[in-house]
Amino acid sequence: MMALELGRLTAHARASQFQQADGWVKDTVQFFFNGCKTEAQKGLDSFTLRSLPIPEIGPCISVDQIADTLKAKLDTMGFASCEVKHYYDFQQHAVLCTLHASWHVVDTPAPPPSTGGCSNTCPICQEIRPVVVLVPCGHTLCSTCQGNLQSCPFCRSPITTSTNGLFMD
């Protein structure tokens, strides 16, 4: 009976230590990612976090295990390279780690300049310009010629509105 109780206490202590380690790793990854985002917003493609203390959680979890768990988590984030180094600092009497990651810069093409939709030859002025569609008849002409027309110049239907352009896939 006593051994069973001791076994339960040991299992509970280990679970608590693993939970603490996982919480620290999760918080550290979020903190590190925020640092990476700050550097990326400056136009940089790497970040180094130095002198981060690794907590002593308990006898069941070593500093090596915590550092390895942290490295494994960072490896899943898609960095081009990632390093986790830990060392003992004799002045602080603590185990510290340095995290470094770099990422690929993704060039995004600039969006095409907005032209107000498709350009076509206006049937009135014969210029190639972005065209608008008259509603409800559907005839097209350039916005300059559309001006303040009250009726369609082609079918004489009253114009209720017009689009800002003609967009086709």
Specify the overall morphology.
Answer: elongated
Fraction in beta strands:
15-25%
| Major sheet summary line | 4 strands, antiparallel
Q: What is the SS-derived class?
A: alpha+beta
Helix proportion range: 25-40%
Please tell me the total number of domains: 2
Rg from C-alpha positions? 33 Å
Total helix count? 3
The low-confidence parts are none
Helix and strand sequence: HEHEEEEEHE
Task: Report mean pLDDT, rounded to a whole number.
Answer: 88
Give a summary of the structure in a few sentences.
This protein has 169 residues and is of the alpha+beta class.
Description:
This protein is an alpha+beta fold and 169 residues long. The protein has 2 domains: 96 residues, no CATH class; 44 residues, 2-Layer Sandwich (Herpes Virus-1), CATH 3.30.40.10. It is 34% helix and 25% strand. The chain is built from 3 helices and 7 strands. Strands 4, 5, 6 and 7 form a 4-stranded antiparallel β-sheet that branches. The protein has a 3-stranded antiparallel β-sheet with strand order 1-3-2. A hairpin with a 4-residue loop joins strand 5 and strand 6. Helix 1 packs across helix 2. The longest helix has 40 residues. The radius of gyration is 33 Å and the shape is elongated.
Summary tags:
single chain, 169 residues, 7 strands, four-stranded antiparallel beta sheet, Herpes Virus-1, 25% strand, 2 domains, alpha+beta, three-stranded antiparallel beta sheet
Topology (SSEs and partners):
Elements: H1 2-41, E1 46-53, H2 63-75, E2 81-89, E3 94-102, E4 119-121, E5 128-135, E6 140-142, H3 143-146, E7 161-162
Antiparallel strand pairs: 1-3, 2-3, 4-5, 5-6, 5-7
